[in-house]
What we know:
This protein is of the alpha/beta class and 259 residues long. It is built from seven helices and 13 strands. Strands 8-7-9-10-11-12 form a six-stranded mixed β-sheet, sandwiched between helices. α3 (117-128) packs parallel to α4 (157-170). The longest helix is centred in the middle third of the chain and has 14 residues, at 157-170.
Amino acid sequence: MDFKIGDIVTRNSYQNDLIFTIVKIENGVAYLKGKAVRLCADAPITDLKRYEGSNEEEKLFLERIKQELPSNRDDYFYLPGKILHIDGDEDYLNRCLKYYEENEIWAVGSKIKEEEIPNQIYRLLETFVPNIVVITGHDAYYKKKGDIHNISSYKNSKYFIEAVKEARKYEKSHEKLIIIAGACQSDYEELIKAGANFASSPKRINIHALDPAIIASRISLLEITKDIDLKSLLQETKYGSSGMGGIKTKGTMYVGYPR
């Protein structure tokens, strides 16, 4: 079967479990990017199967994560927390920005290669002064390189950790700046130790492209006087506490009167 860049496929060797887009083909090998999961992979052309389904599971997930917005019919006005979203992948960044827009949240995005994020994050924080910063992109845990506690076993975790530390130089308080960091299979424990409020991935699994944005949106739209229901929040993400974890914190939305 002939394949071309942009085709939607699955991999036979992985029981066709994930859906990918072909981004490059070279010497009989297809380079793939997850449609929903923050995952880059490659596979022989002979291992691919064209995907022609409707992906009902993804549709149900997107329906489930729709946020109930504050009422526009009452006497109060609402100021959700501002979000700075830094992403190593432009497609996933744009998808997250669209999600923030649908939730009527002020958000700005910046596409930066993972290795460059630590060098640029402080400047971006000074420029946009957000309540919440998301630091994400692509990552991977390579079991052959060492165990989960060896930072050299990860593709980009060290850059996310450095970026979190730079963000904490800008604002030390976990309440004044909410940090959400990591991607697929990231070093969860070290990200939390570095100063993240929320991070991936406790069980070193892949995460959904929108998982960091889901957490950011919920915190943005929760009143600043209220505590996050941590377990319930994590269950709203695609893979729950296996994919994302964090610490108890408060919301970032101010409520005023009159409109």
